[in-house]
Amino acid sequence: MITRYSQILNSPVITLDEQVNLGVVSDIVLNKTDFTIKAFLVRTMPIIPIRKVVSFSDVVEVASNAVLVQNDDSICDMRDSVRVREALKAKAHGIGQRVYTKSRKFIGVVYDYTIHSETGKIMKLYVKTWISDRIIGTETVYKIDGKRIIIEDEFETISNKNTEMETA
Fold this sequence. Notes:
This protein has helices spanning 5-8, 82-89, 160-167; strands at 2-4, 12-15, 21-31, 36-43, 51-55, 59-62, 67-69, 75-77, 98-101, 106-116, 122-128, 133-137, 141-145, 148-151, 157-159. By secondary structure, it is mainly beta. The strands form two sheets. Strands 1, 9, 10, 11, 12, 13, 14 and 15 form an eight-stranded mixed beta sheet that branches. The protein is elongated, with a radius of gyration of 17 Å.
């Protein structure tokens, strides 16, 4: 199933064994090397919100309305996950990253993306500027460099408005 980042954000993280709500997804951390999900950041529900982490390898299913994990051992404290903290410092979360071509032409800023829920692979980037709105396939991504995503100069783009009309 293909789902969007914006649908997963603020979705509950639920255990399969006891149907316990562990919190809500507050963000997604990406692997910069292969553009897959590394982990989900989870905001817990007590009075004082605590940020926790669920590794993608511990996820049973990603649906458009919930992230399912096997049990409450699947969630850990942010302080215990060095790799996720390093990825966050490197700005590896996709949203808000600026997209440029290899020849340094500014394309826009990522505001959403689609995810293949079984593999965790990012499929399409939703990118916009003041005057344009584009969908760019991640197969054109050359590299992720800090706050920037560099894509090939010859990239295929689809207008959001045209895509919405075709699916209606």
